[in-house]
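User: Hi! I have a protein structure encoded as tokens and I'd like to know what sequence might fold into it. I'm fairly new to this, so please keep things simple.
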């Protein structure tokens, strides 16, 4: 039975972990929380990262259904980590009836931060500059070995692979951002719809049913191109139902603190559904009604300006840069052409103003606004002056 949106909203408000906010989440932020959960849950040190940072496992529940979760395999994808701790707060509430149901039916194994080195440096890569989500076969990195050893030990019934995605993604070829995207990954190059994929798809269908009530048409389906070096594809090849989460962009939510809410809704909905049902995959077909992600967005589009006597649009994309223990969003011009088939999370109408590029300024943005960006590695400022 689908949960009520009001019930989900009330749960998030009650259990939101207030110490976690923004995009820069690393081990120093979550260590006190892990320590506090050790009083009610089983907390275990799985091992050390390539730079000797601890990687923890939080185990909770006594049920027969084994669910494995890992977040921040990519250190700069922190939104799901925030939601995981919101969810853990709920599970730790012994008076919560939904939590009681879940913990009676399921045992949850949660790695809240698989790449603590990457999280500290705010990078997709680990300490050795390796993408852990391309190391599932070679397992040359300690983090990959830790994850695979845990998988082999517990033999999970479900695996939750928790990630974040860039602001470029749309839900289909539309002007609606893909705030949340899901994937039941392929286990072979032919992308066969195997039993384990159907089971994952059925769970995704349930989450989508809930999310459509609060972000209508804002859910996407991630591309299922096969790469055996990716963890999800490897697990699907092993016959383990795997669900990829991608936390994406919501309007004006560059800190992903709104998206965090919807990831919490999805986590709670999926785990409750698993706890209440023996999932066969028979209800998988609606998975394909979720539109596949498009790449229709830029962070800013400046439309209808004149450059070199041509009418063009300017696309600006933010680069995320760690500076002084915070994430700065540095704008960079990435395309100058006719962008009528793309959308900006913010759009500025140039009204055919002429851009004068003198390696100093570009005059185009609305009055009283100043934006710095780079074009061909040169620093520019954009400022509109009265004509």
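Assistant: Happy to help. Inverse folding works backwards from shape to sequence: for each of the 387 positions I chose a residue that suits the local structure. Here it is:
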């Amino acid at each position: 039975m689908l949960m009520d949106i009001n019930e989900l909203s009330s749960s998030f408000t009650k259990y939101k972990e207030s110490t976690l906010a923004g995009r820069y989440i690393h081990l120093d932020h979550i260590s006190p929380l892990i320590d506090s959960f050790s009083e009610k849950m089983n907390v275990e040190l799985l091992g050390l990262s390539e730079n000797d940072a601890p990687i923890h496992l939080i185990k909770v529940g006594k049920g027969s259904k084994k669910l494995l979760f890992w977040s921040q395999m990519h250190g700069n994808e922190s939104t799901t980590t925030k939601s995981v701790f919101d969810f853990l707060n709920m599970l730790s509430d012994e008076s919560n009836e939904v939590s009681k149901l879940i913990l009676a039916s399921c045992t949850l194994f949660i790695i809240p931060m698989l790449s603590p080195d990457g999280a500290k440096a705010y990078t997709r890569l680990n300490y050795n500059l390796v993408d852990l989500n391309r190391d599932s076969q070679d397992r040359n990195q300690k983090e990959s070995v830790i994850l695979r050893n845990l998988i082999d030990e517990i033999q999970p019934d479900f695996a939750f692979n928790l990630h974040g995605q860039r602001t470029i993604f749309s839900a289909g070829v539309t002007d609606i951002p893909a705030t949340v995207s899901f994937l039941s990954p392929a286990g072979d190059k032919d992308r066969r719809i195997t039993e384990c994929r159907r089971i994952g798809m059925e769970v995704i269908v349930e989450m989508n049913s809930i999310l459509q009530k609060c972000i209508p048409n804002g859910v996407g389906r991630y591309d299922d191109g096969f790469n055996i070096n990716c963890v999800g594809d490897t697990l699907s090849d092993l016959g383990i139902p795997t669900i990829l989460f991608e936390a994406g962009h919501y309007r004006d939510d560059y800190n992903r603190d709104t998206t965090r809410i919807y990831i919490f809704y999805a986590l709670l909905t999926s785990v409750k559904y698993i706890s209440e049902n023996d999932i066969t995959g028979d209800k998988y077909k609606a998975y394909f009604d979720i539109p596949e992600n498009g790449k229709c967005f830029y962070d800013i589009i400046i439309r209808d300006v004149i450059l070199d006597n041509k009418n063009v649009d300017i696309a600006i994309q933010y680069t995320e840069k760690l500076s002084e223990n915070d994430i700065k969003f540095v704008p960079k011009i990435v395309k100058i052409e006719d962008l009528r088939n793309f959308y900006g999370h913010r759009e500025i109408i140039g009204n055919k103003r002429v851009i004068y590029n003198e390696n100093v300024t570009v005059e185009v943005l609305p009055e009283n606004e100043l934006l710095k960006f780079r074009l061909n590695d040169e620093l520019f400022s954009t400022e509109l002056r009265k004509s």
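A useful reference point when you look it over: The two ends are 61 Å apart (CA to CA). Feel free to ask if any position seems puzzling.
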